Structures are given as C-alpha cells and as structure tokens.
Amino acid sequence: MILWKDILKFSNSGSPQPDFRVDKSDSEWKLLLTPDQFRITRQKGTEAPHSGALCSSFEEGQYNCVCCNVPLFDSTIKFQSSSGWPSFTQPIKENAIKYNKDTTFGMHRVEVVCNTCDGHLGHVFPDGPDPSGLRYCVNSEALKLQNES
C-alpha cells in the first residue's frame, strides 16, 4: 500500500519505472483526443468541479488513461469525496502513476500523471480515508471506464 510518505519520496527522488512508455507528439495526441481531453491531459488543465461524467459514477470496472489506455485505478478503491472530481485511495499498481512536485498558483501539491504517457491526471492529497489516507483527485476527462462485463 502506498502512503503519503511514499508519495513525498517519489515526488522528490523519482517515481517507480513504468512497465513501458508511450510517447507521441502533440499533433499525434490531438488526433486521438477530444479538445477537452487534450487540454487536461497534455496541457495540465482541469475540468470544473462536479462537471465530469465519472465524478458520481460508481460502476464496476477499471479506470484507464484516456490517452494510452493503461489501467490506473480500480472501481473498488473509488470513493465519494465530495471534492467535485473522481477520487481514489490507491493506484491499480505502484508504478501506474508518476508523482511530480507542483508549486503552481503559489500552492505546494503533488501532481499525478500517467507513468506510461505522462498524461496529466490531477493531484494526490493526504486527506483521504483509511487505510492509506490518500485522495487521488482525478479529472474525469483523463479517464475512461472499462467495464468488466
């Protein structure tokens, strides 16, 4: 289980290596993504709170990166945070997520990106439920739900 101390270590010293990498140019990403998906994942944007289709959805399945389709989160670790964005307590596996220091807008946060393609997902905070105490706050536009059925 990943804990906040691990997140801080990863953001300071480097995240675990991904299983493989997907690298594309901006023009290639633009052909694959909607304008909102591109703005959020490739330009570090965000969606308005409570506007994302996956925010209040709790269907079973896994949440994959909208850019490269790599599994990032599982529905069993999604929770209702009332933050306005889909929230998870853990990634699907330790090396699914890359952690970056983010000091934009005068804040000190930890940005989370897909470790395979560097697509911006959102941020992680140490105010989630037990047992990890983590809240991965992720843009709906950065994810696609793959149902298990």
Counting helices, strands and paired strands, the structural category is alpha+beta
Distance between the termini: 27 Å
Beta strands, count? 9
* Helical percentage: 10-25%
Q: How many domains would you count in the coordinates? A: 1
Q: What is the C-level CATH assignment? A: Mainly Beta
Structure description:
- By secondary structure, the protein is of the alpha+beta class.
- The protein has a single domain, classed as Metal Binding Protein, Guanine Nucleotide Exchange Factor, Chain A, CATH 2.170.150.20.
- 17% of the residues lie in helices and 26% in strands.
- It is globular.
- The two termini are 27 Å apart.
Secondary-structure map:
Blueprint: H1 4-13, H2 26-32, H3 35-43, E1 62-65, E2 71-74, E3 78-79, E4 87-88, E5 97-102, E6 109-114, E7 120-125, E8 135-138, E9 143-146
Antiparallel strand pairs: 1-2, 1-9, 3-4, 4-8, 5-6, 6-7, 7-8
In short:
The protein is α+β, with helices and mostly antiparallel strands. It has helices at 4-13, 26-32, 35-43, and strands at 62-65, 71-74, 78-79, 87-88, 97-102, 109-114, 120-125, 135-138, 143-146.
What attributes does this structure have?
17% helix; alpha+beta; Metal Binding Protein, Guanine Nucleotide Exchange Factor, Chain A; six-stranded antiparallel sheet; 149 residues
